[in-house]
Design a protein that fits this description.
Helix content is about 40%, strand content about 15%. Helix 23 crosses helix 24.
Amino acid sequence: MFSLRSLKYGSDQPFIQLFCFFFQTKFSFNLTGRLRRLNDPETLRTYYRLLEEGHTENNRIRLMVVGMYEVGKTSLVKNLVQNLNEHTQDVRMQGRESTEGIDVHLCEINECNTWKKLKSKRNQTQITNVLKTAQKAEQQSGDALQTELKKEHAPLTEGEYKLRGVMAKELQEGLKPTQDCPLISVWDFAGQNMYNSTHHFFLNERSIYLLLMDMTQDINSSETKQKEIMDVFKFWINSIHMYSTLYDTDKEIKPTIILVGTHKDQINAAEDEKHEYMARYFNKALEPFLANQEIMKRINQKKFLVNNLNASDPEYDHIRKEVKRLAEEQSFWNEKQPLKFVQLETAFDEVRRKGKEILTYTDVQELNKTLPAPLKDDTDLISFLRLQHMFGNVLFFDTDALRNHVIVSPEWILKAFKCFINHKDEHIPHELRHQWNNEYRKYAKLSRDLLENILRYSSYKLDHHVDVLISYLEHLNVMAKPICPEEYPENENCTEEDPSTIDRSARKVNRQQRKHCDFYVVPCQLQPKPDADIEKLTNPKNWETSHALCFVFKDKFMPPATFHRLLVACMREWEIAKTNDTFMLYNNFGAFKTSDRSQLRLWYYDHIIYAKMVFQSTKTQGDDAIDTDHCQNNRRILYENLMAILGLLPRSSNMNKTTPFEEYIQCRKLIKHNIGLVKVNDCRVKDEFVCADGHEDDESHSMNRRDVLKFWYKDTLAEIDDNRDRDFDRLPTEKDLAKVAQSLENMKEIWLLGIELGVPMIRLEQIKMNSKRNHGDFILHVLREWRNKQEALPKLRKAIIAVQKHQDHFFDIYDNLDVNDPSNPANNDGHGSQMS
């Protein structure tokens, strides 16, 4: 007997490609968009096997209700959910008017489209019956497989041969999905800005959003309150867009944001004119986004106007219907999912309903055993938890510190975070009051004693899980213990000539061995530094400074939480620098001691994170004092940490296609925000740039490639300047492309390479779909697609260098190619080989 799950492969990538083909064919939908981030063959094998044992269709909606505070979100939710009032005290204390954190209500949608909060767990009898009928034998096929193989132009491996046989047989089989009432989980978000640092944990592409605005507020006014209203509106639209496209940039964008106007009863207009007023109001609010077609595609055309004081307003029924309609149009609707997963997910719903928010892994194992058809082992359980984590239903990190605890109610993290913001002075004992007033409130320093005191007096009984909470908040880069100054290895692996000779594998070991201070720092609670002071801190006297390295976020939006978490990551890498015995650490700026004679200055403004290296030396002055190796190594550390942070927020660790930011270098003569920036990747094709913006006419100047890259991108500059370009200035042959494709088989950034080479995203997706057998085919056909543009080998080499700029070692395509022996054109497929 042969089973697909028994297949073994030497390389993961071909296996994953075959799985995606199989899922799409057998289960009539493409799992690539859902599971490609996992890049984990074991989880894919488990998922397939469990689908095979029995599956159902996903008909669950996540509805996020967002907007400014006091706009009417909670009142709207109460009017949308039929029996919510009788459950309110289970969620929040009676009499509280504003949501604190997030309230989540799990509801069932009946045939009349009424949303009713669930009181008890759902019946699992149907799930059990289907699972019992799902046991079937797996056999190899014969004729169907042979027919399939004749169509291929390359031999299959033995494993692929067997897999296609299973496909040919099992395409004719399968279980009918079970049917059940759709579920909707309604998430009521707090509107206060203080919670924005944690809201991003819950935003993803698998949700529908209601974005509320108070129609009585004048957004045309320049007053502070009106500006704040527009800032909040733009924050939510930008956030939703960013975290919905962070990974699936090629996916078709469909509307997910429904705009809702509140306080209909207070609009000063005739009843039949109020909807026209609302339309004008939202058109004005959306003006900043009109040039961004991707964002505008996310905005639903139909908008709603409600009076929250009138629970019988028919508009609520229209909203419920529109939410369901939009959900049914999303790619995640009717996805096939294993019944055994649904069974355990339903059990988790019951755990949440009973008010339990954290389970140990042992608890999860025991809960699984109580089910009619439990998952068979830890491999299945881990796969289930990883997927639930990716979809935002739980928090689960498979690390030594965290794998033993599963947060089944992710909003629990926000409750914990709220405690550090809203803790009352009256609960602070006398012996801790100095710490509270002079350390935490001023410098966001949090001792263990103070932390435990805050949790002890929380209304959520968080003091029972102090260690778990700390581990999660550290892992999520909400807070960290700084490195002790006396333990900082001033000259570790350093010399005066080269203080940055860092072994990157040893760096992680050294970081674990360092001792840390006995307190935590919570950067989002730090006081901001005024802009005038920032200019002085980023251009210090008596220090030699590098250019500013700039991480420029796309769509002119970066959540401030991203910078705060980068500060936390830097605190783990380096000692916080001091001036006058005070930490140089603020809400919008941080300085870190990277060696005995250098510091990293890090700050942000709007959508750009800036970094400068500053040096002091008694031996050299000017540019000679700036250690380029040190700059380059620290740039890589920043990049790695920033990518890891962006991977954590949407519950994934891989960035397979594009990044939400681009790298620039700012002219050294300029310090103003977003002026005088040169894109790093442009330096691979251009050698000279004119810097005129921000300068007077008589001060504008030119910069060459070396001026731009010399501090932060030393290796990249050396590779670009390599004079071998002259030797290989010719069109690539088919033999060239085959050698390059073979050399790039272990390269993960092929999507980025395709984009750098100018291959359209839609064409990359087509090539990916047609490359069913292995990763090498995909690479080769991407290179062939580029070759059709009739560009020479140096262009390909520069594109590969640009994609590899954050790696320790560069792959140089010239090393594997023949300089003076280009293939005969007759053997070159006419430079036009295409995929069929």
